[in-house]
Amino acid sequence: MNKGRTKLATGLTLCCFSLAGGASYAAEFEVIDRLSVDGYTILRGSADIPGGSFAVGGSTFVVKGGNAGIGTAVPNNKMDIVKTVTSNDPTTMRSLRFGVDANPGYSFYIGTGGLPVMSGVLQALDNGNPSNIILNPGGGNVGIGTTAPGNILQVTKNQNASTYIAVTNSDTTDLYSRARFLATGGTVNLEMEAIGTLQGYVGTTSNHNLGVMTNGQTRMTLDTSGNVGIGTTAPAGTLEISNSYSGTSQGGEVYVTNTYSSVSGPRAADLTFRLTDSVGSRKPVAMIQALSNNQDSSSGANILFYTRTADGPPTEKVRIDNNGNVGIGTASPAAALEVNGSVKFSGGSAGQYLMKGADGNLAWVSPALSCYNSYDGTNEYGGACNAGYATVFKANIYMMGIAQQWVRVCCKIQ
């Protein structure tokens, strides 16, 4: 060393200290503490090493062009720390340590790792066990992919692909193997979680309803009793659908759609009702079906009603065809009402009959006949019956000692 000045304190132990660069570098140190303490080298004071480097305890500390480097001879930043990483062992990824004391079990580490893709590593330890990392404990926003976060946590990425925030638990041991996302506002806890190999959940873990919104408005509500409301936030049953529209136009509140488009043949859309039997099996017991006449959706369609009479699939019992005819026991009613089978009417007494009244309604009435002989003495069988009367008997009667007599009996029910 051709040029330099060194001031050392009393009791100084100096070991393994060298300046690199020979006579072409100038160095000046002012040391006021020990350089060697239990095998660790301490440099305190000031140093002027323009473009040079020196070794401290076997590690090279390089100062070049205003940059400092440890583990590299060419630092490109104010401080470069370079360490070779050959595995994903957490202990090999640590380059810089912050600790409360000399115990490495209580530390915060910064490093690199994540082979085969190199990644930055942050790790906190508490007594050697993984611990918490706290960001902005005094407040402020955290940004990932942005320099101006507008929320407590803002994740931004500009790419022609999906951007994910992943919470993963790869264990599938039991129901407690969960990946969870919890948001708490006041007393409301909203949670999203995936449980082992079972299923995923979205809901509240507090005693509050779960709502689904679009355009800032609540569209669907699942209340704390398990009732679902669409268009209402207070469903009164297992499912309540509410819509508000004026007039008598069709509101289109519920659609059951069959999207299959065959080249021929009718198509159906079903609404099936099921009940659980004594062994826990859910079996269909009734069904309402819309059945088209052919594959063209603009063709006529029928409504069919199915019920089950035994332990088997429901079968058709009533049909309303595309002409509005109702068939009971028949799939092709030829009149407004056609019944294939016996018909029983209740409410009347024996001997009564149903009669249409002036108001158009049927009513039970007791029979009362009004009859007369319409023979007028000239026309065969007499003239036609009066309005409201019908011929119930006509004959040409011969009796001994009596002239031939024509008879037509006309009657009506009073």
What does this entry look like structurally?
Helices cover 0% and strands 43% of the residues. The protein folds into five domains: 4-81, no CATH class; 90-172, no CATH class; 210-241, no CATH class; 268-339, no CATH class; 370-413, no CATH class. With 414 residues, the chain is mainly beta. It is rod-shaped and about 155 Å long. It has strands spanning 4-7, 17-20, 27-31, 36-37, 40-41, 45-47, 53-56, 59-64, 67-70, 79-81, 94-99, 107-113, 119-126, 129-130, 142-144, 153-155, 178-185, 188-195, 199-204, 210-214, 217-222, 228-230, 239-241, 268-276, 282-292, 301-307, 315-320, 326-328, 337-339, 353-356, 362-365, 369-373, 390-399, 402-413. It contains no helices and 34 strands. Strands 24-25-26-27-28-29 form a six-stranded mixed sheet, with no helix packed on it. It has a five-stranded mixed sheet with strand order 2-7-8-9-10, with no helix packed on it.
SSE layout:
Elements: E1 4-7, E2 17-20, E3 27-31, E4 36-37, E5 40-41, E6 45-47, E7 53-56, E8 59-64, E9 67-70, E10 79-81, E11 94-99, E12 107-113, E13 119-126, E14 129-130, E15 142-144, E16 153-155, E17 178-185, E18 188-195, E19 199-204, E20 210-214, E21 217-222, E22 228-230, E23 239-241, E24 268-276, E25 282-292, E26 301-307, E27 315-320, E28 326-328, E29 337-339, E30 353-356, E31 362-365, E32 369-373, E33 390-399, E34 402-413
Parallel strand pairs: 1-3, 9-10, 15-16, 22-23, 28-29
Antiparallel strand pairs: 2-7, 3-6, 4-5, 7-8, 8-9, 11-12, 12-13, 13-14, 17-18, 18-19, 20-21, 21-22, 24-25, 25-26, 26-27, 27-28, 30-31, 32-34, 33-34
